Amino acid sequence: MKSAQLTKNLTLPCGAVLKNRLGKSAMSENMGSRGYTSNEKFNRLYARWAEGGIGLLITGNVMVDRFALGEAHNVVIEQGIKDSNLPLWAAAGKKDGTHIWVQLNHPGKQSPKFLSKEPVAPSAIPLKKPLDRLFNTPRALLEEEILDLIARFAYAAKVCKESGFTGVQIHGAHGYLVSQFLSPTHNQREDRWGGSLENRMRFVKEVYLAIRKEVGDSFPIGIKLNSADFQKGGFTQEDSREVVQHLSELGMDLIEISGGTYEAPAMMGASQKESTKTREAYFLTYCEDVRKQVSCPLMLTGGFRSAEGMNAALASGACDVIGVARSLAIQPDFPNQLLSSATVTSQVKPLTTGWKFLDKTFPLEIIWYTDQLHLMGEGKNPNPKKSALGSVWNMVYKLGKNSIKKVR
Fold first, then answer.
1. CA-based nearest residue to 111, from 404, 405, 402, 325
2. Which end of the chain is less crowded, N or C, counting CB atoms within 10 A of the terminal residue's CB?
3. How far, in Å, CA of 366 to CA of 263, rounded?
4. Residue 70 near residue 111, CB atoms below 8 Å
5. For residue 408, what pLDDT is reported?
6. Higher pLDDT, 304 or 89
7. Bridge pairing between strands 10-11 and 17-18
């Protein structure tokens, strides 16, 4: 049967069980309320996804510092912020035995100019052109600030557990702060947090250990990690394999494999070889390689479009969970269709505004798919025919408005 591998459950190292092998990878919702809190839109969106048959829901990035946002309307979990909706959000995502994990994140230098006059990062290195038009040059973090950030991740994880979420995921990919620490391009520190790979991975190691201390051994902790940054002199596949092995040995419950950054967006399928397209998954070859080294469950995200491709990846033993994201933004019932052995393929297609400059300057895939999440959050159906150019102009309008008037 087409769904033979997808329907199997999975027991994680901590003892938690996923009901099937499909996981929703994080997509930033950017629809938080004033005060950095969640709201009923999150409840509607995640209830719809849970009803769609997915085994694991990973939320969009939830920030650990209100002064370090990736988008204007991020949810933040930190001391001093009371979010009475968190238990309702968790309950909505747990329908039908679904797991719902909160992705915890800090953007580092990837915080837009209108939100961060002086963002922080491991080193004071700006993003490359043309992204430097959207993001300010960061200030290098002080030692005490690094320790504070580690404590913030742990506190946020504790709140997630108390609110009823069934796990957390550390965002260690796509050029955000954890990824910046791992990259020799972005981390050029000369103290114990930079230099050798052992030092560069110290931040993520300490974040994991601090979280584990707060939530205990039976609460799932995962991480999203790059297979590589796909940048000259950056975080390599060799680096990634070593980090994966170390985190697996520490007791990580699920490692999600992705790749790329805003500067080199491999996670969006940019410049994929024909052989990769045939096998669907963007990072399958890497996953097959790292599987030889680790026993920790692996979730592979990026490029999957059909049940055949997903089951083939699972049957090969290269991965244990199939990550899907954009497909769920326009086909929320995609998992149920896959699990029923129906002949179904993803409706995800390349997006363009028709203007190369706009396509290169703005994170088009993020903007357009976020609009789809907002529709479902409002109780509406997604609109696969929505104009990509319209989504960009809407974002430009919001950026202009927010740069004149403070967002919160």
1. 402
2. N
3. 14
4. yes
5. 44
6. 89
7. antiparallel
**Cα dihedral 206, 211, 216, 218 sign:** negative
Q: Provide the terminal-to-terminal Cα distance of the chain, rounded to the nearest Å.
A: 52
Task: Say how many residues make up the chain.
Answer: 408
Do 176 and 110 touch, CB atoms closer than 8 A?
Answer: yes
Q: What is the pLDDT of residue 3?
A: 62
pTM to 2 decimal places: 0.91
CA-CA-CA-CA torsion sign (229, 234, 237, 240): negative
What is Dmax (Cα atoms) for the chain? 57
Please state which architecture CATH assigns to domain 10-343.
Alpha-Beta Barrel (3.20)
- Both tokens assigned to 181: 């620490």
Domain boundaries, the chain: 10-343
Name which of 131-135, 208-212, 269-273 the model is least confident about.
269-273
Phi, psi of 101 (to 5 degrees): -110, 140
DSSP state of 376: H
DSSP alpha helices (H): ranges in 237-333? 237-250, 274-279, 284-291, 307-315, 326-330
Residue 226 token pair? 């790059």
Q: What is the pLDDT of residues 22-76, one digit of tens each?
A: 999 999 999 999 999 999 999 999 999 999 999 999 999 999 999 999 999 999 9
Choose among 270, 262, 211, 213: nearest CA to 107.
Answer: 262
Confidence of residue 299 (pLDDT cuts 50, 70, 90): very high
Q: For residues 119 and 113, what is the distance between their CA atoms, to the nearest angstrom?
A: 9
Rg (CA), the chain: 19
CA distance 287 to 308: 18
